Amino acid sequence: MKAEKQTRRIKPDWLKTQIPTGKTYLGVREIVEKNKLHTICTSGNCPNMNECWGLGTATLMILGDICTRSCKFCNVKTGKPDAVDCDEPKRVADSVKLMKLKHVVLTSVDRDDLEDGGAGIWAETIKEIKNTSPETTQETLIPDFQGKKNLIEMVIDAAPEVISHNLETVERLTPQVRSIANYRRSLEVIRQIALSGIVAKSGIMVGIGETEEEVLQCMDDLLEVGCKVFTIGQYLQPTTKHLPVLEYVHPDTFEMYKEIGLEKGFTHVESSPLVRSSYHAEKHVY
């Protein structure tokens, strides 16, 4: 019998993670399930779920778990989303209080089906958390809202401590990797955030065909629009239907990117194989 052709690269040792376990992890999972919350930790198959949930933190995903876009790297479901749940902001805020979080990260699917792109729910959720847990700092990882400045301004006006919007990849690869999104439009979103005085943050994945020069150019582009915090992590292929991994980037290269990024002027750079955009997010508030 002919051997089946290997279609996926074998992960190196530095990408191995522990199976989620522990009392705190189970407690977070119980709260998430009981309150019918969505998390990018589970939807995105995040490799850091064991560490983050074990510390009693999670990245909560609002506006459902079905995205209107179909990016080639993302494991979140795509299709026609459910109707907006108007009770979600309060339910999320109550859960944040129950978890006793010092810092919370909020993200969402893209909701191009909604007139406001979900910006109203975004703003309400941020405000509800401020009301119920005033000591909890917040990072919001937002979509591009199709570049509509008035919708981005709604999130800015709600005043989370950090607003993040990911470029995801270098400019050349953006059409292959992202659905609908545009590299230059995303830079303008980040520029608007930075001009507001709120900490602006962004991140990319590597291992999908980018060059070192393109990564460094991406850093320069982000710094030019006022981005202060930058994250770089290894792309991991969720399923065979997604983009293949072309390279498992060595940890030494990630360390090099971190040193260069800090030298260029970022206040924080998180760069290692298992880094995701919300990794160590509590460090990026100031």
How would you describe this structure to a colleague?
This protein has helices spanning 23-34, 40-43, 49-54, 88-99, 119-132, 149-158, 174-177, 183-195, 212-224, 251-264; strands at residues 38-39, 59-62, 66-67, 77-78, 103-108, 137-141, 162-164, 199-206, 229-234, 268-271. It is an alpha/beta fold. The protein has one domain (18-284): Aldolase class I (TIM Barrel), CATH 3.20.20.70. Helix 5 (119-132) packs parallel to helix 6 (149-158) and helix 9 runs parallel beside helix 10 (251-264). It is globular and about 45 Å long.
Q: What tags apply to this protein structure?
A:
10 helices, TIM Barrel, single chain, two-stranded parallel sheet, eight-stranded mixed β-sheet, globular, alpha/beta, 286 residues
Task: Write a brief structural summary.
The protein is α/β, with parallel strands linked by helices and 286 residues long. It is 36% helix and 15% strand.
